Amino acid sequence: MADSDSSAPVRVRFAPSPTGRLHIGGLRTALYNYLFAHKHDGDFILRIEDTDQSRYVEEAEADLMQALSWSGLNYNEGPGTGGPHQPYYQSERSGLYQRYAQQLIDSGHAYYAFDTEDEVEAMRERHASDDNPSPAYNAHTRMEMRNSLSLDDDEVQQLLDDGAPHVVRLMMPRNETVRFEDEVRGTVTFETQGLDDQVLLKSDGLPTYHLANVVDDHHMRISHVIRGEEWLPSTPKHVLLYDAFGWTPPAFAHLPLIMSPESGKLSKRDSNELGIPVFVTDYREAGYQPEALINFLALLGWHPSDEQEIFSLEELVEAFSLDRVGVSGVQFDLDKLNWYNEQYVRAMNAEDFAEALRTQLTEEHLPITHERLMAIAELTQDRVSKVGDVLTEHRYFFEDPTAYDEDDVESGWTDQSAELLQALAEVYDEASTFDRDVVDQGMRDVAETHDVGLGAVIHPVRLAISGRTSGPGIFDLVAFMGRETTLRRIDAVIDALE
């Protein structure tokens, strides 16, 4: 089914498991589903796949909802929104899965298995070889195990009546080829001989991902399953399940992995070692613009038909198509993301930038007046890649420097600097007013009196004010800081460096 040829309504779903904070790769999957749905006037559905209660994290769902809302990816059906196929939590649909598992047993496509984990492991050890170090539980081995195929009917019924722990397994065909068309990868084939008889229903009565997602995708009339490449090996099991039920499968599209700059899938280790955040929350808290992150992620695996780089969400919807999604993994480039964010930050109007900055300040409990907020915004907006940089790279707006950059001291502080700053402090202290013109003229007068270039005064002043020798225009910066703060910081840098 091509991404624009189907006459059936387009319905896609994003179906995360609430096992932790939303990964940046998960947001890209949600984005591609959103773009595809809106491109074809379809529905974007959120479904919570929470059947693995052992890995459930209570805060994960709230993090997910916040990330989608912050990113502007609103869904048509799902938790909190409702829809014709609710509930949208798999944990609330267990009766449906049990009914379909029984249907597969009755039709001969699945069976009860009473083996313990130790018994399954022992089987794998018995059959292990250099060529096959982890043998499958399937047609080649199932008859030597304890299941409803190897045991007689009376024994099976007695075990069920006694409540013996058991799972339900899919009966994988022997030595068959499973073939399906992938919207990204073309024709994909798998051989069943190496596949396990997949567990469909666990011993606690809850389904595995494989049964639940097939049943739900069918009941929710999902037309396209757009998900990460890591689910590609599971797809033949899903295709066989659709066949067993007699259902038409949706179209499949498996997205390329987001790779670390050092190869391998982008992981939490990269966050720790390379400074690349892997969770959406980290980007929000760091002050990235959601529009920039969405723009960057859209082009991380998909490429437009021209050289355009900056897209609004509406423009992405118009341009997006699955046939321009690549197959190979794509390296995450934080510098490129920062470039995108810089473009969006520079394009913001001053009020929006100031309000985004206020949010950052509020989170750090730094109160500020509107007048000073607007002044800081004006001084920094064209100098930062993200709003959060104001609190990291320009912390001196809110706190006196506690250290001075060694390279800047080396280049900006001379044997004469303390004398020049002391002279400037006297000029500023005696001035009847303190504004930009006074600041400017004071530095020029000191430079002329001491027969030095203006830079010999500016560099140590900037070092005193900010701890470094680069930043916003020095006259505006000193005027903003005010006389008291300027004099205090001049005294501090002299004490520290002399």
From TrEMBL:
Role of this protein: Catalyzes the attachment of glutamate to tRNA(Glu) in a two-step reaction: glutamate is first activated by ATP to form Glu-AMP and then transferred to the acceptor end of tRNA(Glu).
Extent of motif 'HIGH' region? 16-26
Q: Domain of life of the organism in this record?
A: Bacteria
Protein name stated in the entry: Glutamate--tRNA ligase
Whose protein is this, by species? Longimonas halophila
State the CDD domains in the record: GluRS_core (cd00808)
All copies of domain Aminoacyl-tRNA synthetase class I anticodon-binding, residue ranges: 360-494
Q: What are the entry keywords?
A: Aminoacyl-tRNA synthetase, ATP-binding, Cytoplasm, Ligase, Nucleotide-binding, Protein biosynthesis
Q: Which classification does the entry list for the species? A: Bacteria, Pseudomonadati, Rhodothermota, Rhodothermia, Rhodothermales
Ranges for the Glutamyl/glutaminyl-tRNA synthetase class Ib catalytic domain? Answer: 10-339
Record keyword Protein biosynthesis present: yes
Under Enzyme Commission nomenclature, its number is 6.1.1.17
Family named by the database record: Belongs to the class-I aminoacyl-tRNA synthetase family. Glutamate--tRNA ligase type 1 subfamily.
State the GO CC annotations.
Answer: cytosol
Q: What is its main location?
A: cytoplasm
Q: Where does ATP bind?
A: 268
The processes (GO biological process) annotated in the record are: glutamyl-tRNA aminoacylation
